[in-house]
Specification:
The complex is a heterodimer. Chain A is α+β, with helices and mostly antiparallel strands. Chain A has a single domain, classed as Sufe protein. Chain: A (Alpha-Beta Complex), CATH 3.90.1010.10. In chain A, 43% of the residues lie in helices and 17% in strands. Chain A has six helices and three strands. In chain A, helix 2 packs across helix 3, helix 3 runs parallel beside helix 6 and helix 4 runs antiparallel to helix 6. The N and C termini of chain A lie far apart (47 Å). By secondary structure, chain B is α/β, with parallel strands linked by helices. Helix content of chain B is 37%, strand content 16%. Chain B is built from 14 helices and 17 strands. In chain B, the strands form five sheets. Chain B has a seven-stranded mixed beta sheet, sandwiched between helices. A four-stranded antiparallel beta sheet of chain B has the order 13-14-17-16, covered by helices on one side. Chain B has a two-stranded antiparallel ribbon with strand order 1-2. In chain B, helix 2 runs antiparallel to helix 10. The radius of gyration of chain B is 22 Å and the shape is globular. The chains are: A alpha+beta, B alpha/beta. At the A-B interface, helix 1 and helix 3 of A face helix 12 of B.
Chain lengths: 157, 420
């Protein structure tokens, strides 16, 4: 597979027109993930409503792969249960470590299946996972905090 | 257009010289690879590759401790390499050459030894254009000692802002160490080391120079440079990886405490305390990179054979050609000087909406190797208001045909991502 194929139109569309981007308030957890080798960064916030992921907002700098993967991720988890979001994380994570050999499930991963080709380019796997890792860390944070979703924070300006 | 075609006139035949570098015959998608990442690491001529094999095949033994034929041969070759390096950079004597594992280790050695007696109130001065290896060791030193780390800013055209430094009294009576790069690995800027060294010495400070991008590209004479300690690395100057060099003025080195403790850096060891060897061995604890240093000696012979003046001239011509080509691309911003005046061969650029990671991946698919990222100079990128950049860097084997291939591939990349 060549590089042109890796850059699926779905990926470029999400990169050019990112879904749910920008940082919003209030939020329950905020994390920063960086890829030290290339400097890509994402700041991501999660807002819960009980067991539901009410919102995921983010701001970041990075390549098309990291930006598009984060955009796709928000489409997949906003409005879904926390458990569901964790399942999508696990599924996406598995696909990205499959070296492109996994047959992705379009029912569950939707636009995310476009990244199966990226999994063949080892040095880009981290890019695709940047936003997803931020999501996992943010969800872990909400689970660790007593009171969880009720302890909603606002950013001090 | 052929990749081997070259329009520079540096006084040596670039096409013929390329035959010395076997890796340049590698092909990607049926075409020879275009290697424009020499500021990251240089390719190696066959003589250097052969020197490693020759050493391990015929002369391998530990140095300075094995009292047998092979030990004598290995020691002679290793110390011979030290002499070659000394001659190459105009050192006063071979004892001024310390072998380390890389330039980072040389700079850490410097921070630990030169900075050993720093105290709160003392100041260390670096620059915002440094590689992380000439920032982080000094930050760590400041944390250990309570000294303050200050830095030169840059001007809009990517040169050290000497006027602002003067205005802010950056170098003053509290300054103990001034450290800066000879040539920026991102901007390509060649810094006025001599001028800054004279200023630093006038207030009694010591001067450290990171010459990792300088020594490979141009003749560097330690006496003329005016620094006290200078770090550079073997693998960027057609030598093997795993060996770096710290040059130090002998009197400065002789006054420094040891860095790492271990074998060969001692004079007498008693359980109650030890005394230390004289430079350079004081700073070479443990078995050194023997084969690598010998390989670096051969690399230096190779560079000298081509001629450092000729290499510098070729570097200027290829950089001018590259700068010219890049400036034909709409919306491309070159970081650093856009003309070859006090400028080295690393050319970094920004394409705005197309991320360097994507640029370098697409160029790679076209057989063109460049580097995308912050090039271990994150503070500089932050200062420039960008997160990362794409960098093309040539060397003595780079042809104008390869630069043409880069410009073509960049055109393709831009069309692909912008969709027009």
């Amino acid at each position: 597979m060549d590089v042109e194929e890796m850059y699926q139109e779905i990926i470029l569309d999400h990169y050019r027109q990112k879904h749910h981007s920008g940082l919003r308030e209030p939020f329950d957890a905020q994390v920063v993930q960086v890829n030290p080798s290339c400097g890509d960064e994402v700041m991501l916030r999660v807002t819960l409503d009980g067991d539901t992921v009410k919102d995921v907002s983010y701001d970041g700098v990075g390549c098309s792969i990291s930006q598009a993967a984060t955009s796709v991720m928000t489409d997949l988890v906003i409005g879904k249960s926390v458990e569901n979001a964790r399942e999508r994380y696990a599924e996406f994570h598995e696909m990205m470590h499959s070296k492109g050999r996994m047959e992705p499930n379009e029912e569950t991963l939707e636009d995310g299946i476009a990244f199966v080709g990226v999994a063949k380019f080892v040095n880009r796997v981290k890019c695709a996972l940047l936003g997803w890792e931020a999501l996992r860390e943010a969800l872990d944070q909400t689970a660790a905090e007593p009171g969880g979703a009720t302890a909603t924070m606002t950013q001090e300006k | 257009m052929t990749l081997a075609a070259d329009k520079t006139s540096a006084g040596y035949d670039v096409a013929a010289l390329r035959a010395d570098f076997p890796i340049l015959r590698r092909e990607v998608n049926g075409k020879p690879i275009v290697y424009l990442d020499s500021a990251n690491t240089s390719q190696k001529p066959q003589v250097v590759i052969d020197a490693l094999t020759e050493h391990y095949t015929h002369h391998n033994a530990n140095v300075a401790r094995a009292m047998h034929l092979l030990g004598a041969e290995a020691t002679e070759a290793f110390e011979g390499a030290r002499q070659k390096l000394a001659t190459f950079v105009g050192a006063a004597r071979p004892e001024e050459i310390v072998f380390t594992k890389n330039a980072s280790e040389a700079l850490n050695l410097t921070a630990h030894t030169l900075g050993a007696d720093l105290k709160p109130g003392d100041e260390i001065v670096t620059t915002v254009m440094e590689h992380h290896s000439n920032i982080v060791p000094w930050q760590m030193l400041a944390e250990r000692t309570g000294a303050t780390l200050r830095w030169f800013d840059i001007t809009e055209d990517g040169r050290l802002d000497l006027a602002a430094a003067e205005r802010d009294g950056l170098i003053n009576e509290k300054t103990r160490i001034v450290t800066l790069t000879l040539v920026s690995n991102v901007l390509g800027t060649i810094n006025p080391v001599r001028q800054i060294a004279d200023q630093a010495h006038a207030v009694g400070a010591k001067v450290v120079v990171d010459a990792s991008q300088g020594v490979p590209q141009m003749p560097v004479d330690m006496a003329a440079l005016g620094a006290d300690l200078v770090a550079f690395t073997g693998h960027k100057m057609v030598g093997p990886t795993g060996v770096g060099v710290l040059w130090g003025n002998y009197d400065v080195l002789a006054a420094l405490p040891p860095f790492l403790g271990g074998g060969e850096m001692i004079e007498i060891v008693r359980m109650t305390g030890s005394t230390y060897a004289k430079p350079p061995h004081r700073f070479e604890a443990g078995t050194p990179p023997i084969a690598q240093a010998i390989g670096l000696g051969v690399a230096v012979d190779y560079l000298t054979g081509v001629g450092m003046e000729a290499i510098a001239q070729h570097e200027r011509e290829i950089t001018a050609y590259l700068l010219q080509g890049l400036q034909t691309i709409d919306g491309l911003r070159i970081l650093g000087p856009t003309e070859v005046v006090d400028r080295g061969g690393a050319v970094s650029f920004d394409l705005g909406d197309i991320h360097p990671h994507d640029v370098s991946q697409m160029l790679d698919a076209k057989g063109v190797a460049v580097r995308g990222g912050h090039h271990c100079a994150r503070p500089l990128h932050e200062r420039l208001g960008i997160q990362s950049s794409t960098r093309a860097s040539g060397y003595l084997y780079t042809t104008t045909g390869e630069v043409d291939a880069l410009i073509d591939a960049l055109g393709y990349t831009i069309k692909f991502f912008r969709g027009k």
